[in-house]
Amino acid sequence: DGGSHDDVKNLLWSVILSAIKCCLLLFFPAAQPITSKLDDGWWAYKDVVQGSFVPVPSFWGLVNSAWNLCAIGKRQSPIDIETSHMIFDPYLTPLRLNTGGHKMGGTMYNTGKHVSLRPDKAHLVNISGGPLGYSYRLEEVRVHFGSEDSQGSEHLLNGQGFPGEVQLIHYNQDLYTNYSEAAKSPHGIAVVSIFIKLSENSNAFLNRMLNRDTITRINYKHDAFLLMGLNIADLSPDTTRYITYEGSITIPPCYETSTWILINKPVYVTQMQMHSLRLLSQNEPYKIFLSMSDNTRPAQPLLQRCIRTNINFSKQGRDCPNNRALRPQYRGNSQGTERGSGGFVSA
């Protein structure tokens, strides 16, 4: 009869659904949190070789509706800085750094995805000026780096990558009480980004983080090490020139709340320090070694955004009309040496 027919049909559907579920759990065991408890850390930069599925950048916006901006956003970061698209803005003033005259302490972490230095709450470091309309408080210093010297920076310059990129991540302390609130809110985040290049000598600030005695304390995920007496001003290259655009944070949920400021001069680390970074593991010590290197999101489309700069690229030294988008003849200075007010980009 009809009732028994329905019972058989329901039983069949139950068996089919159970089989599908078993297959999913068999092939994608790490996918379980997506249905039970969503894990904000459930993402990766590159494929994990252990048979579990963890979403890489091309999947970030597909596995979690809260991260959909990663897939459909129109102001995503990082980007490829094409110097021919930059607009000179003479009203971009130098950034102002305020440390209160104090050195800072902080805890350096291996998060499994980044080398992360988080300043202690006792010593506030703020930036303002430049393209920023508010005061922004330093939340984190984050290091991205590659497995090879030709890659490792999130941003590119005319298609070219650098061995690494230091990102100083700040939140708007005028409007918001903490980073989490600011990250999802308008004008919430300001990131000062500096390319890393290789040299015989190391930047003084990065040397404190990356010297052998320090970096070997954070070999594995969740390792932490306290640093004191840091002078954040040592990290800033000797230039007031930068490139700026409106974008997003570069990890899920990819909120489009970041003003990016890319300094037009690199910082330097030694080849040995870069090698030490590449020996850091994404995993805990009892798991397989997976290098943290290549912890970068691919460049995202610029679309309709402007890239502004206070680098005066006019050979005659004339200011460009403020509202006219110019397409001057730039060239990337691959040596990264600063001539006059130049740097990576010079006239």
TrEMBL record:
Keywords for the protein's UniProt record, in alphabetical order: Membrane, Transmembrane, Transmembrane helix
Cross-referenced InterPro entries: Alpha_CARP_X/XI (IPR041878), CA_dom (IPR001148), CA_dom_sf (IPR036398), Carbonic_anhydrase_a-class (IPR023561)
GO biological process terms, semicolon-separated: one-carbon metabolic process; swimming behavior
Spans through the membrane: 12-31
UniProt xrefs under PROSITE patterns: ALPHA_CA_2
Region feature (Disordered): 322-347
CDD domains linked to this entry: alpha_CARP_X_XI_like
Domain Alpha-carbonic anhydrase, residue spans: 41-311
Any one Gene Ontology molecular-function term assigned to this protein's record: carbonate dehydratase activity
Record PANTHER family: CARBONIC ANHYDRASE, CARBONIC ANHYDRASE XA-RELATED
Family, as annotated: Belongs to the alpha-carbonic anhydrase family.
Function of the molecule: Does not have a catalytic activity.
Record protein name field: Carbonic anhydrase Xb
